[in-house]
Amino acid sequence: MGMLRLAPLVAVIPISLLLTASFFVLFALRKVEEKWLKAFGYLVASLLGLAAVVVLYSASLGASKDPSRMKYMMQQRMKDSYRSQMMPPNMPDKVMAEKGVAVKN
């Protein structure tokens, strides 16, 4: 359960790498004089920024969904274990045999 809470923190690494690369692209654009190369540099920097936003969004989405999924799975396990404790595994066979219905084995 502890790893699920640390999962969004792992997204900090790719986000910081993408933003650092974007910074250096923008820094290199100050030395460029060609117009088309500047436009391409701004495009690359904006795509790197967009990629950082997507990683951040997916990490926050994953963090918000994991606990609810785990909670649902735990509730289902508890229900199944409660049922197995309350009713023996061969109970339906006995009930069907008492009613006179042929039971397949």
Q: Structural class of the helices, strands and pairings?
A: mainly alpha
Q: What is the domain total for the residues?
A: 1
**Rg for CA atoms:** 29 Å
Largest sheet: none
Total number of helices: 4
Beta strand %: under 5%
- Strand tally, please? 0
Subunit organisation of the chains: single chain
- Element pattern in H and E: HHHH
Distance between the termini: 41 Å
The mean pLDDT is: 76
The helix fraction, in percent, is over 70%
Q: What overall geometry do the principal axes of the alpha carbons give? A: rod-shaped
Sequence stretches where pLDDT stays below 50 over 5 or more residues: none
List keywords for this structure.
single chain, 105 residues, mainly alpha, 4 helices, 0% strand, rod-shaped
Give a description of the structure.
With 105 residues, this protein is an all-alpha fold. The protein has one domain. It has four helices and no strands. The chain has helices at residues 2-10, 12-29, 35-86, 91-99. Helix 1 runs antiparallel to helix 3 and helix 2 (12-29) packs antiparallel against helix 3 (35-86).
In short:
84% of the residues lie in helices and 0% in strands.
